[in-house]
Amino acid sequence: MIKKYIFNVQTSTPVRLDSYLTKEEIFNSRAQIQNLIKKNQILVNGEVKKASFSLKNEDEITVFLSEDFSLIIPKEDIKLDIVYEDDDMLVVNKPKNMLTHPTHKEINSTLVNALLFKYGYEGLSDINGVMRPGIIHRLDRNTSGLLMVAKTNKAHEILSEQIKTKTAKRKYLSIVHGNFDEESGTLNFPIGRNPKKPEQMAVIEGGKPSVTHYKVIEQFKGFSFIELSLETGRTHQIRVHMNYINHPVVNDSLYNKIPFKVKTTEQVLQSYYLSFYGISDNDIIELEIKPDRDIEKVLKYLRSLK
């Protein structure tokens, strides 16, 4: 069986086709990518191109792979914190220091490994391929919280559409540097890959539209406890937007170099609230969890200084 993968190029500067694809988790090496290009299994805007072809922003890459090309993802008996479950889907509370799905560099100890142990491939949607069974959206490794997982393709399509049309609501808690003059606000800045630091995303001209809303919950001397909600779901969106307006997330080593006295498991950021329409009955399902240990630890410290 042949699987089709589509990638929409986001770049502010021209980049080689084979170089660009090395960041995608379905590949193990540039040599594999170059071999697929030679076999005409990788197209750019529907046309065969050489490995050295220079991609520009918004080009569309289509990759055709056989079912057995992808890595075999091991099933691992990792405890799942299931907050909600029915016949169509489930919502898990993903802990910090856990990838949502495997990459070509890391294929163990991810949420997918745990899901495969409990449900197997047959019990999860396959729309996103063998590397991401059941995965509709993702959380960064060190962002904890609520994450939807689809058991069936029908559920996957319905929940993905709810995210796209914004009928599914996602809210986050975070502690950031600095104080706000206003109680709430909206950040509308385009995000794309940082041309100078490819491991980072950044607000750049020509990036994808990205909208984040924030609301101040509590302020301290030099810090703020805030709630955030997303209209879009770009990689590192909250972290990039908050850093861009000079309110970086506490202990975010990728975007924030300001030292902080309290140690945490990386960025102080949690997906704490989720609402969506049920698959079978269309009733609204609302889920909310308590602040995680890192948020509680930092809040305790900041409140002790008042």
Verbal overview:
This protein has 306 residues and is of the alpha+beta class. The chain has 3 domains: 2-66, RNA-binding S4 domain (Structural Genomics Hypothetical 15.5 Kd Protein In mrcA-pckA Intergenic Region, Chain A, Roll), CATH 3.10.290.10; 82-165, Pseudouridine synthase; 170-274, 2-Layer Sandwich (Pseudouridine synthase). Helix content is 18%, strand content 30%. The protein is built from 6 helices and 17 strands. It is globular. The model has no long low-confidence stretch (mean pLDDT 92).
**Percent helix range:** 10-25%
Sheet of most strands: 9 strands, mixed
The helix-and-strand class reads: alpha+beta
- What is the CATH architecture descriptor of the largest domain? 2-Layer Sandwich
The CATH homologous superfamily of the largest domain corresponds to Pseudouridine synthase
Which spans of ≥5 residues are poorly predicted at pLDDT below 50? none
- By DSSP (H or I, 4+ residues per run), the number of helices equals 6
The separation of the N and C termini measures 62 Å
CATH class of the largest domain: Alpha Beta
